[in-house]
Amino acid sequence: MTTIGTNWTQMPAYARSPERAEWYYLLVITILLVVLVPFEPYDWVQRAVTAVFEPKDYRGDAVIIAIDEETERGLPTRTWSEADLSGLLTTIGAQSPRQIIINRQYFKFSSPAAATQLREALADLPKPAVWVIELSPRDAAMQTLTAGGTGAFAQRSTQIPAALTGLVVPAAMIFKPFAFGAPIYALTSVKTDEGVFPTVAAILAAPAAKPRDAIIDIDVSYNPSTIPAYSAGDVLSGKVNPAVFKDRQVVISFTRVVGRDTAVTPNNSYTPTAALAIMAAETVRNGPGLFLGWVPAFALAMAASILWLVLRRPYGRLIAAATFLAILLSPLALEPLLVFQQTSQGLGLLLLLGANKLFQRGRSLVQEYRTASETKSRFLAQASHDLRQPIHAIGLLTDRLKDTDLSSEQAQIVAKISWSVDNASRMFRALLDIAAIESGALKAEIAPVRISDLFAELDSQNALAAEQQNVDLRLVPSTVVVETDRALLATMLQNLVANAIRYSPGKRVLVGCRRRGTAVTVLVIDNGRGISPSDLEHVRKEFFRSSRRSDLRSDNKGLGLAIVSRLASMLGLQFALQSEQSRGTVASIGNLKRLRVSNEAALPLPNLVLPLAGVKVFVIDDHAETLASTQRLLEGWGCVVDGSQLPPEILPDCDMLLSDFDFGNGENLAANSSLLRQINASKTHLVVISGHHADQIEASLTDTPAIVLSKPLRAAELRSALMAIRSA
């Protein structure tokens, strides 16, 4: 047999060791639920629902005579009077009923003759009638009726009208209802300054044993419509055979005023208070209900909660679910037997524990997703870095090969190789951008940006592609200055313009901006083939490519719009796409903050382009072929070039140091502090070419200013960087 002790490794396969936080949470919610009052509204709803689903028929001997609107309309005076009550009592009294109970009466008019007639009718009854007096729960203190009864007290109570003293027995009718019609409590006796009064419920329940408590929980599952009821007008007019009242308990009561004469019960929203008193009497007669309180359901829920913590899925979960259903449905079995309990605390315990487990599970899934995303980002970054080096070398070799004597066929092959290298370069750069965004390594540098400068760059970068596609590329001049990250906004616009040119051959592409108050929106509009509604929902996803007119030779890898969407979200901008098939597409980047710049000279000027002839460049690259190709490329531009596969101990005499970052065997440029100090002390400009992301390189070279270029690097990009350094 497996022993479960402090050695959790010996636990059965179906058991688990809960974390300490789980025990703490269970303890906290247990204390809160024990200290706090049960959530009674739930128990009220539960009682009401149970009463509706399992109604009972009344089978007692009580009957109601209702003074309703129909009765008053049939009276000569159109209102109930003492004379009418006298006639009703005379008719009923002749049948020798067991008891007559007269609920509160509302006479609009009274006369000495009618009062005398009422006293005579009461005096002629075979048994004194019960007269309901005006008492409210605030006027009365609950107390069990003693064996002494009412005795002479009933004859002298000031609660009885003076004219009826000695002719009737006083009784109270007091209920305490709750929302939803359940529960409803009734008093069996009340104590006032004058003494103890019985209630109508206790009188109707006689000769049943008196309940232990002065307050009872009425069994509201009785259907009030099954209690016999007759209209007082029909009794007075002879439409009802008076014999039906023989040996029965008769309750005479008003029923026409909602709220005053009625109450809400689960099976009838307009239950007469007389019917409520009869239901209370029936509850007493059948034995007052047993109230278990909240402890049994809560203890069962606590046991299920502990099992839920110590058992593995799905055992603990199944036990908790079965317990929850058992507690939830228990009233359907217990309440017909007049056994009541509060289940809100027990159900609340299981629900709170389940909510916590659901939250913890969700947090665990989110953490797993983040871990997977970070792993994917690291993989993309590393793969991009490792593949950039050979592609970078191929690009340099291809550029050198173009400068040799080639035949027409060879030139075509070299051009295709160059196109493939460009395509791969763009793809790896996009992958690295995606990885940088996801990992959070990409940081925005907010500064004033001239829209005109961005448009000039877009024109320069896309003029050749537009010409090749026979696209009329137009950029609307603008003097607007916005506050954003220049490089990231340029990347977004370049992606949008490149897409517009690619899918609008022979058409027109328009780039401009729109001002609305302090906000600026940049738009890229084309009248190309457009995007289908089905594709428009997915074009922002990575690697999504429309199957429509797909071309395996296309350089579209489905990353451009994904990068734009993520960068827009990162900068707090609004990226929108509107498109109609065969009509064109409108891409917009909105919510750019417009600046009113008075001093134009405060903004950075565009870089100037100067020749590279005579520039001294020292190249460091541990790949011999890459080193040789780079040297020959620089020499072709007129540079004075020297190089080495490893960093020199002494900084050579040069204007620019063009270096790789990684040198193999775990060595890198950042670790060569001696060389970096010499660079800082000289006028040499450092240019780093690496497959790592630029932010990572700059973070490693915090004390040494450097220009970081990403592999694979095209010759034109390297030349532009070197020209920019010389012109500075």
Structural class: alpha/beta
The description of the largest β-sheet is: 7 strands, mixed
Query: What is the global morphology?
Result: elongated
**Structural domain tally:** 4
The pLDDT mean sits at 80
Portion of residues in helices? Answer: 40-55%
**Rg, Å, rounded:** 47 Å
Note the gap between the termini: 82 Å
Can you count the helices? 21
Low-confidence stretches: 1-8, 139-157, 549-556, 605-610
Q: Strand fraction band? A: 15-25%
Q: Please give the number of β-strands.
A: 30
Give an account of the 3D structure.
The structure is a single chain. With 728 residues, the protein is α/β, with parallel strands linked by helices. The chain has four domains: 15-51 and 292-364, no CATH class; 57-288, no CATH class; 443-602, 2-Layer Sandwich (Heat Shock Protein 90); 616-727, Rossmann fold (3-Layer(aba) Sandwich), CATH 3.40.50. Helices cover 42% and strands 19% of the residues. The protein is built from 21 helices and 30 strands.
